[in-house]
């Protein structure tokens, strides 16, 4: 089968941003013919929503845009670093939390901000995907747009690794 790339998206509760990012990337990998060589999942930094579906607004914007929306929330575990090639934070708070959990330099090197893969996001830009949870559907639509903008750059990174 050859080399596989394993990617985990991480946000706060694993019900809004990271499931959206996961479904967008999965679809882009299908389009790129790479779906069989990449394992994509997601998790939250906290356990509050473990076992829950994605937020109904996240499911809605995903489905309306033609993506899947099946999801079960879970919390990121530090031992997962060993089985992931990239651990992708949705904002700098998640990035800090993941760096705190990383036990080695090799694990820390796997952590990246999702928007760092967006070619239109400059180095000086705020690379956070803002939390839509306390907003309306339009905030979830914005989250989807930001994830779509970063997904193609991540597909390019996957190609380089394969």
From TrEMBL:
GO molecular function (one)? protein tyrosine phosphatase activity
- Enzyme Commission number(s) from the entry: 3.1.3.48
SUPFAM superfamilies to which the protein is assigned, alphabetical: Phosphotyrosine protein phosphatases I (SSF52788)
What does the UniProt keyword field contain? Hydrolase, Protein phosphatase
**Residue intervals of the Phosphotyrosine protein phosphatase I domain:** 5-157
Q: Which InterPro entries match?
A: LMW_PTPase (IPR050438), Ptyr_pPase (IPR023485), Ptyr_pPase_sf (IPR036196), Tyr_phospatase_low_mol_wt (IPR017867)
What does the similarity note say? Belongs to the low molecular weight phosphotyrosine protein phosphatase family.
Among CDD domains, the record links this protein to: LMWPTP
Answer whether the UniProt record assigns the keyword Hydrolase to this protein.
yes
> Mind telling me what this protein is named?
protein-tyrosine-phosphatase
Which segments of the protein form a coiled coil according to its record?
none
Query: Which species is listed as the source?
Result: Streptacidiphilus monticola
């Amino acid at each position: 089968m050859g080399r596989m790339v394993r990617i985990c998206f991480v946000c706060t509760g694993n019900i809004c941003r990271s499931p959206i990012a996961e479904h967008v990337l999965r679809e882009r990998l299908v389009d790129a013919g790479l779906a069989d060589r990449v394992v994509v999942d997601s998790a939250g930094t906290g356990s509050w929503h473990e076992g829950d579906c994605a937020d109904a607004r996240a499911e809605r914007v995903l489905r309306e845009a033609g993506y899947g929306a099946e999801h079960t929330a879970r919390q990121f575990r530090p031992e997962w670093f060993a089985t992931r090639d990239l651990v992708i934070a949705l904002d700098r708070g998640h990035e800090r939390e993941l760096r705190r959990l990383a036990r080695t330099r090799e694990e820390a090197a796997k952590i990246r901000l999702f928007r760092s893969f967006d070619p239109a996001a400059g180095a000086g830009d705020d690379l956070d995907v803002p939390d839509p949870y306390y907003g309306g559907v339009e905030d979830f639509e914005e989250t989807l747009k930001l994830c779509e903008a970063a997904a193609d750059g991540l597909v390019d990174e996957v190609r380089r690794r394969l």
